[in-house]
Fold this sequence. Notes:
Helix content: over 70%
Largest sheet: none
Strand content: under 5%
Mean pLDDT: 91
Shape: rod-shaped
Radius of gyration: 44 Å
Distance between the termini: 138 Å
Order of helices and strands: H
Number of helices: 1
Low-confidence stretches: none
Structural class: mainly alpha
Amino acid sequence: xxxxxxxxxxxxxxxxxxxxxxxxxxxxxxxxxxxxxxxxxxxxxxxxxxxxxxxxxxxxxxxxxxxxxxxxxxxxxxxxxxxxxxxxxxxxxxxxxxxxxxxxxxxxx
Length: 109
């Protein structure tokens, strides 16, 4: 057996091994792609109802926020109405205090 024959045998073995590895990689890639397809199909089946539930929840939260906004607005209106007499009493008290202070200064001076 000469060197050329040995080299051809080694190259044939390396070629067969390379083809085997390539076939193994292709089989693994095909299995991974099938698995990914199943995963995406499953996600699609679960994601659509989940998104719909999220949409309903967000709508409910928005409705509650609008209701709370209405309550806060009414509370502000009521507090303004309640504070108006107190503000008037404070203004009268302030004017009386100023008049009282002016009268005391006039007596001392």
